[in-house]
Specification:
heterotrimer, A mainly alpha, B alpha+beta, C mainly alpha, B: alpha+beta, Rossmann fold, OB fold (Dihydrolipoamide Acetyltransferase, E2P), six-stranded mixed β-sheet, six-stranded antiparallel β-sheet, 21 strands, disordered C terminus, C: mainly alpha, MetI-like fold, 2 domains, two-stranded antiparallel sheet, 12 helices, binds adenosine-5'-triphosphate, binds magnesium ion
Chain lengths: 292, 359, 273
Amino acid sequence: MTIANTGPLAPVATHRRRPYGLLLVATPVLLVAWLVIWPIISAVIQTAFVTTADGGSAVSLETYSFFFSDGYSLSNLSMTLWTTGVCAALLLVVCLPIALYLRFSDSKVAAYVQGLAIFPMFVPSIILSFAFIRVLGPNGTVDLLLNSVGLPHIRSPYLTPWGPVIGLVWDNIPLTVLILLSGLGNVSNQSVEAARDVGAGKFALLWHIILPRISNSILVAISFAVLGIFSAFTLPYILGPAAPEMMGPFMQRTFRELLESKTAITQAVVTFGFCIVFGLFYVRSVAKNRAA
Amino acid sequence: MSVLKIKDVSKIFPNGTTAVDSFSLDVADGELVCLLGPSGSGKSTLLRMVGGFETPTSGLMTIDGEDITRVPPEKRPTGMVFQSHALWTHMNVFKNLAFGLKLRKVPADEIKRRVEGVLELVGLGGYGTRSVTQLSGGQQQRVALARSLVLEPKILLLDEPFASLDQHLRERLREEVRDIQQRLKITTLFVTHGQDEALSMADRIVVMRDGKTEQIDRPDVVYREPQTPFVAGFIGTMNLIEGVVANGVFSKAGYSTPVPVSDGPVTLAIRPEAVDLTAASQNAHGKVHRVTDYGTHGLVDLELLDGTRMKAMVPHPDLFKPGQGVTLALRAVAAYRDGAVIYRTGVVTPVSHPALVDA
Amino acid sequence: MAATLVSRKTDWTGIIFAAVLTLVIVFPLVVVGTWAFTNVWRYPSVIPQEFGLRFWNQTLARADVWSSISTSLTLAFTVTALSAAICLPAAYAFARLDFPGRNLLFFSFLAGHAFPKFGLLVAIAGIFLQLNLIGTFWGVVLIQLVGTLLFMIWIPVAAFQAVDRRMEEAARDVGASPFRVFWSITLPQAGPTIAAAILLSFVGTFYETEGAWLIGAPQVRTLPVLMISFINNQPVIQYGAVLSVLLWVPSFIALLFARKVVNSGSFARGFGG
Ligand SMILES: Nc1ncnc2c1ncn2[C@@H]1O[C@H](COP(=O)(O)OP(=O)(O)OP(=O)(O)O)[C@@H](O)[C@H]1O
Ligand SMILES: [Mg+2]
């Protein structure tokens, strides 16, 4: 399976331009148009206009000004920003060493480490949430072990802002490692050996040779993680505090429990706004990657 | 009993490349015609148009008088053997051969009989149950040939079928193919850029260049009487020497020889075997640069006084040493001007030795 | 050769990584597995007082478990089948046919991944609200279908492009119609990779929680949705543990088949790495 290996669409040798190609791709393309593009456009339109008394419509940013003046919404937003930032930083701190190790090691242990680093990809976040509670929750396994050696209980991260952070980092390790590793694949052994040859120490090597080469991969990994984390739902919903909550659970509650769909959609558009840079960067990178 | 006619066929790809340029050719019943030319000369494109995989931009193609120009490949009575053999790796040998017959709703027992017959023909009797990935390159190419033959196509098309094989296998297979082709009397168009292949197999050779025909002739004629300097240089080893004729004498760097044509620049073409070389310490025309001993004969690379390189075939290579002065006498020459032959002396018997032909 | 940073003798770095990752990644799952096979485990005992299958019987006797298993399977099958039916022909077209706007349309499938997912789901839910699709089976099918599009098109496109064109031409040559060529040559050749894509999309759908929760719950109750309510409201820990083990089965199968694929760098490059 080489999603990206094929390059962009390699030029097709047949030179007939018959519309039945369009016919074959029509259904999925229309689905994307209807269920991705249109909802986004409609969300923006819906929240930016109000129906006036005489039945016409007028531009109004009322819902946004409400969002940005409402203390609760703002604290949810800042909690989301905080979580996203902390997660992104932690992911780099955790995954970069793993990826570096995997790239430059060929020992047997490396295969095992790689297997472990990929493994969370095969653990659905709902099972992860349950495991988290059983291990780090009140009276969880960690408590049991501490208790058995006579130490006091931990302050459980369950239902605190750190709960989602731990869960999200765990969940995002595999793809971050894979993306970084794939970036490190572009650093040739020769260039590393050449740098050591002229006397670069390990730190200089990392700073001057390796990091510049993989800066793009780091940005892609971060973008991908940010897009996933910013509006994460399951983990913050189960592991996070009830208030303030992250944008995911917040939107869900506004939509399903308060039945305020317009407010929920406003919140969604706000998340789009905060992630637009990462989204564009991510798409550009993937597209460029396939076009390379 | 099939005749292929190609008339004024051109192919211009959407990117603007003119791959084939008003090409015309008639292939007689049972004839094997080789398309020979350098890389990019449009051989494959032409063959693929005959097979139906490319549509000509203009022109007409007929098989037995029937227009096939716009007929899709599956409806054409042609069978194609690809360079990369293109066997279906998810089917075994038998199924590869049987696929086309099944599409034609041939009864199962006849399929079995015909497939086994053809496998026998290509020397792979009993290989039916083998997976095609477990065959050697030569065997795979034979299966590919069998896959086309089993359908008894009117026209057999082969696109460099042996290009990926080693020299020995290539030689053996080309004899086998020639054998089978003559036994079945199947009209065949064969693409190659190996001239030895063309010279040894073809009834006629089409030399192509930039999508156009340079010459269409029997192999011995193409070899002995190349119509253009391009053909002269492309087939076999040929010394092509640019010079000037004045008063019926061609001269180049102190060497001169009579060439009875009008004054002006000419390209002189001389086969190495038409050069008589004599060791000489005085009045030398050039000096030996390198001597290669092929056992049966030798090949001397020499340098004329102005540095022009030439090759000469000598019966006793041990008579020549690098650096030694030599004089030459040319037994047979052809002179070209403006891309056409304007003069030719008598003919030299062709010596087709791999060393000469492959060079 | 490649051991430029890590010495070859004793790979201490690796051993430390392995130990830490084992503790962080494997250990929590082992705890869940243990809970699933525990009859009694009271605080503060470090190991369970009694192992057994009691809660398997109890969990599997619950009607809500069975109904959500069947909902999840029906959903996953429906979505995967629909997705294959619309995506494979499209993938073939992208790989093999030329038509106006081919590249633009191809990259349009990335659009869904350029936005925070749950925000997008809420925007879609806004549309569904007007169409009365909230709380319906087909609403969930649609939302999960959109989630599978990128994978189900990009991976098969790569697979189709990897099929030797000459093989297809050879089949045309022996008399197969374009459709027959697709059926008898292209599809079998691209088969294994496409199977991997279908498996991944099945597993992905099976675990899809957010769309199902937002659009479907409480009427459409998939296994992950049931799991959420177990976590929120179920005092008996073992129910959740047993359900987790059950829930992990498709993942395990995917792990067996798709691990190589995921590990092959090309997968990550698909994410832009
Ligand atoms: N699908 C195509 N689109 C555009 N140009 C093409 C295409 N196929 C071939 N060409 C061009 O047409 C010309 C002739 O190509 P062709 O493959 O027929 O050459 P050839 O004689 O078979 O060469 P070779 O000996 O290398 O196989 C080349 O310049 C080639 O680049
Ligand atoms: Mg060719």
